[in-house]
Amino acid sequence: MAEHRLFPYFLILGAGLIWGATFSLALIATAKGAHPLGLSAWQVVLTVLFFLVAFLFSRFTLFNPRHLRHYLVLALVGITVPNLFYYYAAPHLSAGILAITISTVPLFTYAIMLLLRFESMVARRMAGIVLGMIAILLLVVPDHGFSSGDASLWILLVIVSAVLYSIENVYIGRGIPASIDIRELLFASNLLAALIQFPLALYLGVDESLNWLLSDAGLALAGIAFGSCIAYAMFFYTIKTAGPVFASQCAYAVTISGVIWGIMIFTEQHNIWIWISVIVMLLGLVLVSPDEDAEVEDDNPKILS
Who contacts 175 (Cβ-Cβ below 8 Å, separation ≥6)? Predict the structure, then answer.
């Protein structure tokens, strides 16, 4: 049915629009100087609470000790480390820049799958990776007039986060059985992330009190947490049903909506180099995207049980 075929596109579009808004919310959350570890710790706690509420309405497995390895990998590679890098870099960059750098996830996803021999080498898609690297250079090399003198280093830090998200994508698509409920993965991995981050925050003397959550920054963080829950659920479901490379194409919506949200909320103005980077990145994403038939034939049998 036509509606069924379009459903994965609806999922990645919705997830991309939500994630695009989180870049602007991140700027609000970090504006008052909250510690990145405190931000990340509260985000995972709010995410856990979100899924506990969801559990009351729709019962599902919350935690299965046999899946502990999967939870731990996602908690470290997909949550804790990239969150910290992201919140450290966010105050030094614009929402548009954050959106463009995170849109490299599909490029790195294909590159990792190529290295692991899950994907075959295709000249068109390799050209897409090259264009993606050019887009990154257009962000790093020119002077964009940021207040931070080491803005290029912060851009590279966000790109490292994108690499970690790409590793997470491949692991979800190739390393986790399709029988594991997406809600279980999200709840348990965030629970482990909270158990890692809160003791570390206490040890380092990071103190973002409960009252902080009622501030503008705290409410913005709550928006990130709850929005990400919905977006991740949509995105993970797409990975399990249509493959990690196809799902990563929500980066189109992430890139465009992230830039537009930044313009609407902060009236951001970008120079010609950034706009060229957006165009080059989108062209790279077009080239790296696999053919629909190839995606179905190559990915789905290996992902679905």
Answer: 70, 73
Q: How far apart are CA 192 and CA 66, in angstroms?
A: 14
pLDDT per position in the chain (305 positions), as tens? 444 677 888 888 899 899 899 999 999 999 888 899 999 999 999 999 999 998 888 888 899 999 999 999 999 999 999 999 999 999 988 899 998 888 888 889 888 988 888 877 888 888 988 998 898 888 887 766 665 567 788 999 999 999 999 999 889 888 888 788 888 998 999 999 999 998 998 888 887 777 888 889 899 999 999 998 898 788 878 877 777 667 767 878 888 899 999 999 998 888 888 899 999 988 988 888 766 554 444 443 232 22
212 exposure class (CB count in 10 Å sphere: 0-12, 13-18, 19+): middle
- Counting beta carbons within 10 angstroms of the beta carbon of residue 294, is it exposed (0 to 12), middle (13 to 18) or buried (19 or more)? middle
Q: Where are the beta strands (DSSP E) in the chain?
A: none
Cα separation, 189 vs 182, in Å, equals 11
Residue 218 to residue 208: CA distance in whole angstroms: 10
Comparing C-alpha atoms, which of 186, 141, 132 is closest to residue 159?
A: 132
pTM to 2 decimal places: 0.84
Q: Kindly give the residue spans of alpha helices, DSSP state H, lying in 31-80.
A: 36-57, 68-73
CB atoms within 10 A of CB 269: 11
